[in-house]
Amino acid sequence: MKMKKVFSSLMALGLATTLAACGGGNDSINTSDEKDKKSDVEKTDESKSEDTSKIDEDSTELGNEEDKQGLSEKDKAELADFNNVTGDDTLVIGTSEMSGDFFEGWSNNSYDVIVRRLIGTEGTNSYATAVVDESGQWVNNDTVLAEEPKKVENEDGSKTITYKLNKDLKWSDGKPVTADDYLFYSLLFSDSSYIPVTGATAVGKDSLKGYEAFHDTSNPAEEFEGLEKIDDYTFSVTIDSSFLPYYEESYLAQQVPFPMHVVTDNLSISDNGKKLVVKDGYEVTEEDKKAYKESIEKQIENLNKQFEEENEGSEVDEESQKAHDEAIASLKERLNADVDPIQQLKEQAMLKVANEYRLNPSVVCGPYVFDSYSNNMAKLFLNENYKGNFKGEKASIPHVIVQFVNKNIAIDLLENGNIDIWQDETEGGQIEHMRSAADEGKIKYNTYDRNGYGNVAFLTDRGSTQYKEVRQAIAHLMDRNSFVQQFAGGYGVVTNAMYGTSQWMYKERGADLENNPELVNYQLNLDEANELLDKSPYKYESDGKTAWDKSKADDLFSKDPDGFDYYRYDEKGDRLVVNQYGSDESPITTLISNQVPNNAKQVGMEYNVTAGSFATLLDYYYNPTENAEYTAFNMGQSFEPPFDPYYQFNSKGFDNHTKTNDSKGDEVTESLRKTDPEDKEGYLDKWEDFQLWYNDYLPEIPLYSNQYHTGYTNRVQGFDINTPQWPASYQINAMSLSK
């Protein structure tokens, strides 16, 4: 309980960058395929997670008239002055604005993720023991492993997996990759001090046996029971029985390395691999002592700040206050005690990760090495020590630049050869431009269905949206088909639950789900919305007694729609009001604002849409007050394996920002994740059960799942594989540049 309370506030801060303002070009949302991000799949929108994707400020409703008739004067000037950095040995990837975080645990911007995947600090290009292939399936990384992992089921229900590494793996600086690097990752990022010291969201390897004891902030275990070092190139991990069975077990078992030598000179791995120890001969210096005490003071400051933010506007319960006070007392006790050498060195390494490595990951294991980042441009060069991806493919293009560009001129830049790749375009007008340019032979493009959707998310525990009937009624006040046509230009479909049309589950069972009579296809229907609201507490006039009268509402609305003031109330005399917050950079905000408030009046609902910054939206969504003004938010989410909605919609899920607390929801999310990995049909049955629950409970209204178009210049060769799980940053290993 103690850690859970502190942990939740830290999570909220970090995950505020894992969703995207729905609408606008290039609006991908990262949810990350590493366990410790838990951003979108495990929240998920992901979800990657998804991100703080910055939609260009010129983006307006339907791409605006300027987009249809030509570029604005501002855009023309930017196009004319664009600094071309392509070259015979340099591939340029255009993208939206990056935040400059190139390691997991802080912001989860999907544009930073492009760089992370190229350098291998995340994803399939890394030396992870298991990775996701182009179809979204987990496979062993044979480039890393010398043999098939050995699995043993233990009497207590846990499972031990033993990994034997190839001995020719190297970091980009030429140092060998050993078992110590994999064990260091688990030990450092699972340490009870890591989150308080760094303010990161990475939780470490929480599926491994002994994690709770090792991660306990009040009295952490000295050793991490679920780890074992066998020799320099062999180690094992034990998955805790509480996590098993788990359908995507490979995800739980996946292990990744970290270059220990980059962040510490004086730490090493114990002989048994279960803890970090001080190297022989190390002595604490006065400088070390000073840094150690400063670190503790910073932890106290961070914990107090996060506790205040978490409980702002609400009364703190006794148990939470006690847990916080004990955590602070423990830190103060350490502050006044002698310096603990091992703790000092661990915290020093943690701070190097937070303050140095994440901004400048100088040593990596991916196809490219980080060179520099400035002016929203990341420069990378070929990693000569990279052994290749799991297929054995190895990148050959000498230099890659990831560069921010104005999305309005991105396709023009492709045509001019100023950039080589523009990924995941979603706006209909820009897609038409891309396809026309391809028809003329100027560029090429790939297309695939998005693994995610745009949505309206609700707070389901406060305000009028705490009632299912209100949420369902809102869904009947929207013409979602018009969103697909007007925003996506027809390149997409309306969705009715938490799925993307490219997901393998949907491909196998989507037809069955859509044809299930229990699945509601929410369409614009005022009569249906009225019937639902009549079942809600809001069925009275302002006196809280007289039944609300639809015919009276129709008459008043027809006479004076602007001055309409005949709303529904509950028995306490509280009006039915829904306040939605949307990004002012999102065309979807405008579409909803133009459509829903007028429709809502006719069913007695006051529906207000406020537009502002996406950062503000996320703050309202992640940190709602008890009497939150806004309880509806439009954004978007995309998925990365594994698909595990437990974290978003189970009452115990730490990423449950909709505040869902429903017994049926708990049942279906728990059942889905607890499916045996060999029981594919059973998993699909449970997937359908979950989707039907989601469609009924409606913690979010799914709006659409659109198509992504990725354009690239004719000189780019080998870009013949492009799926939701396989972007350019993975296909880079098979690409080349023609002269």
Structure description:
The protein has 739 residues and is an alpha+beta fold. Helix content is 35%, strand content 16%. Strands 1, 10, 11, 12, 13, 14, 15, 16, 17, 18, 19 and 20 form a twelve-stranded mixed sheet that branches. It has a four-stranded antiparallel sheet with strand order 4-5-7-6, with helices on one face. The protein has a two-stranded antiparallel sheet with strand order 2-3.
Give a quick precis of the structure:
The chain has 739 residues and is α+β, with helices and mostly antiparallel strands. The protein is 35% helix and 16% strand. Strands 1, 10, 11, 12, 13, 14, 15, 16, 17, 18, 19 and 20 form a twelve-stranded mixed beta sheet that branches.
List keywords for this structure.
twelve-stranded mixed sheet, 22 strands, 25 helices, globular, 739 residues, alpha+beta, disordered N terminus, four-stranded antiparallel sheet
**Beta-sheet strand percentage?**
15-25%
Mean pLDDT: 88
Query: Please, how many helices?
Result: 25
How would a textbook summarize the main sheet? 12 strands, mixed
Radius of gyration: 26 Å
Number of strands: 22
Into which percent range does the helicity of residues fall? 25-40%
- The low-confidence parts are 1-69
Broad structural category: alpha+beta
